[in-house]
Design a protein that fits this description.
This protein has 13 helices and 3 strands. The protein is mainly alpha-helical.
């Protein structure tokens, strides 16, 4: 009886091992298409892939399950990331901040061959003519000439504002949509560029004030605001309201306050938003007042003039918002 029991357990273990081997073998081979789970002839799970013929074959009965499979992978092999990057032939990604989206060839100005030897004067004159006509031929229409002026200006303003690359790409794409919808006609290029940047910053939750953009670009604030309203209306953009909390980190960093002050200012703004103290008021003024109060509560007081200079508002605005927050939130603070 004991020998029979041992034989049964041994048989059970061997069957489980075979099933496990089949599963592990199946995992190491490329799996067939989703509708083919096993061999339709012998019901085996032992299916292999022939790379040379492009076929799925049953390793038990030899049935060709699928043939003429297209290999979508590269024709070269790489054994580490450096080899993979060196052998890959894909170019740089498309960039909307480039006038030709980055898909353009360029004849450099070095006038040297591949070995670094300077070219003869006759060859240099030929390259000069080629370079000149190549530059002329790369501009096909008025839109591309427009991009040559607008996109460098967009990069300049964005760099002064400290905006990341993804914001610049979104702003450049929005500007291209304005050009396609003829919203640029009758308006200065710089005005539409600044309006696109302002709309993109607000959409991405990284707001910049009209005063900041106007001071950098030397475009009147009213013109940028008017163009912004035209863009949002014509393109159907849904720009969310500016959250005053988005200004807090910038003001805290400029005033050199601690993290406790930033946390306290965020809490004050949340309470103010719940009571509706933000609606109908400038978010920069409310945010500046919250930072002013938070600095005093944590023992890092700053004067109203210092906060006003950082926020770009007047001291009167800070005093008015301070009185409102103190009264409605019942704050025990005397400044």
């Amino acid at each position: 009886m004991a020998d029979k029991k041992i034989k049964k357990q041994t048989k059970k273990i061997s069957e489980e091992g075979e099933v496990e081997d089949q599963r592990s073998h199946k995992g190491t081979q490329p799996s067939p298409t989703e509708n083919v789970r096993r061999c339709p002839s012998c019901k085996s799970l032992d299916i292999i892939f022939d790379n040379e013929r492009g076929e799925y074959i049953c390793n038990s009965c030899g049935l060709v399950i699928e043939e003429n499979i297209v290999d979508s992978g590269p024709e070269w092999r790489a054994f580490d990331s450096d080899q993979r990057n060196a052998r890959a032939r894909t170019g740089a990604p498309i960039k909307y901040t480039k006038p030709n989206r980055g898909l353009v060839t360029e004849i450099d100005m070095y006038n040297k061959d591949i070995r670094g030897t300077k070219l003869p004067s006759k060859r240099q004159a030929q390259l000069y003519r080629m370079r000149k006509w190549h530059k002329r031929a790369s501009i096909a229409n008025s839109s591309e000439r427009n991009y040559l002026v607008a996109l460098p200006e967009l990069n300049r303003v964005a760099s002064y504002l400290g905006l990341p690359d993804n914001i610049r790409e979104q702003a450049a794409l929005l500007y291209r949509q304005c050009v396609k919808n003829n919203l640029i006609r009758g308006r200065p290029i710089e005005t539409v560029v600044n309006a696109a940047l302002y709309a993109t910053c607000r959409s991405a939750g990284m707001p910049r004030t009209l005063d900041e953009i106007s001071s950098i670009s030397n475009v009147p604030k009213k013109e940028v605001g008017r163009t912004y309203r035209v863009i949002t209306h014509e393109l159907g953009l849904k720009i969310p309201l500016t959250d005053p909390s988005a200004y807090v980190p910038r003001y805290i960093a400029a005033l050199k306050l601690s993290g406790d002050a930033q946390e306290k200012a965020s809490v004050l703004l949340k309470q103010a938003m719940k009571k509706g103290l933000v609606s109908g008021r400038s978010p920069t003024g409310v945010s500046a007042a919250a930072v002013y109060i938070a600095g005093a509560l944590v023992g890092e007081r700053r004067t109203q003039k210092e906060v006003a200079d950082v926020a770009g508002v007047t001291e009167v605005t800070i005093r008015n918002r301070y009185r409102e927050l103190k009264k409605e939130l019942e704050l025990d603070v005397n400044l």
